Amino acid sequence: MVAFVATTNLERAEAFYVGVLGLTVEEQSPFAVVLRGGGTQLRVTLVESFNPHPFTVLGWQVSGIEAVARQLANAGVTFQRYDGMQQDEQGVWRAPDGTKIMWFKDPDGNVLSLQDVTPGGGSHTTAGDLPA
Questions:
Q1: CA distance 47 to 31
Q2: What is the pLDDT along the chain (132 residues), one digit of tens a residue?
Q3: Rounded to an integer, what distance in angstroms lies between the CA atom of residue 53 and that of residue 33?
Q4: 9: CATH
Q5: 47: burial class by Cβ within 10 Å (0-12, 13-18, 19+)?
Q6: 70 to each of 26, 75, 130, how far by Cα in Å?
Q7: Which of 19, 68, 75, 113 lies most in the core, judged by the most C-beta atoms within 10 Å?
Q8: Residue of 58, 61, 54, 55 whose CA lies nearest to 44
Q9: Is residue 127 part of a domain?
Q10: Range of 106's domain?
């Protein structure tokens, strides 16, 4: 699978996705940077202007969401809070099935998420491209 995300600044986006989230660079051009994380290719494409969507465009399944969140917060990531959602002090929301979810934004305002399913709630893998 190949995922796509838009940016108005390739250098800034690469610094975030590689330096903060830990993805690796596969290819660079004046128009895009191709990254790899957890077996998925992400093409960060340069656009002239961009209005980010208000919903999640990329997400990662992780084990131990609280620890991953602390590491990302230490790297400067701010987690989003949404009115009407009961989130804990870190910003974790528990879905009705027990799944823990957090949201944050990349430098262009794209909404990204972390998801941690509870034991017995489904299968998941540890994201090798995010701090564990």
A1: 8
A2: 899 999 999 999 999 999 999 999 999 999 999 999 988 999 999 999 999 999 999 999 999 999 999 999 999 999 999 999 999 999 999 999 999 999 999 999 999 999 998 563 344 444 444 544
A3: 21
A4: 3.10.180.10
A5: exposed
A6: 28, 9, 12
A7: 68
A8: 58
A9: no
A10: 2-47+54-116
Count of structural domains, the chain: 1
User: DSSP for the chain?
Assistant: -EEEEEES-HHHHHIIIIIIT--EEEEE-SSEEEEEETTEEEEEEE-S-----SSEEEEEE-S-HHHHHHHHHHTT--B---TT--B-TT--EE-TTS-EEEEEE-TT--EEEEEEPPTTS------TTS--
- Type of residue at 126: T
Q: At 124, list the tokens.
A: 């998941």
Instruction: Supply the pTM of this predicted model.
Output: 0.86
Residue entry with tokens 């690796």: 24
Residue 87 structure tokens: 């989130």
